[in-house]
UniProtKB/TrEMBL annotation:
Record keywords: Coated pit, Cytoplasmic vesicle, Membrane
Compartments (UniProt record): Cytoplasmic vesicle membrane; Membrane, Coated pit
Keyword DNA-binding: no
Membrane topology: Peripheral membrane protein
Job description of the protein: Clathrin is the major protein of the polyhedral coat of coated pits and vesicles.
Protein name as it appears in the record: Clathrin light chain
Main subcellular location of this protein, as a coarse class: membrane
GO molecular function, one term: structural molecule activity
Region listing for Disordered, in residue ranges: 1-35
Amino acid sequence: MASNGEDDLNDFLKHEEEKFSQLGDPALTSSPPPDIQEIITQRDERERAIEMTSTALSQDTSDSMFSVEPECIQAWRRDKEEMLDQKEAELSEKMRKWREAVQQEFRDWYDHLLFTMCMLFYVCV
């Protein structure tokens, strides 16, 4: 036996369904869900079409006239690689110098700290 609250809920839901069905909007009425298998088939067909297109495009670009780069492009690449190697070497040298400077600064600070502590110790004793 349903309780009074469940009866009220069922009445409310029935009333709301009637209001929605009067609006005539198929999204609001209780229409059967779309066929899941049909949706999956359509998705698979789209994925196959995309895959075939991308395969065809990759084959077109690999067979194109740009498969061998012109000499000017090859020279430009070599120049850029040399420039990047040089900058990388300069950067690593700067970093090495910075590390040495920081280590020396830390040693100086630590020596000064020890000296100050020793002086304070002897003054207090």
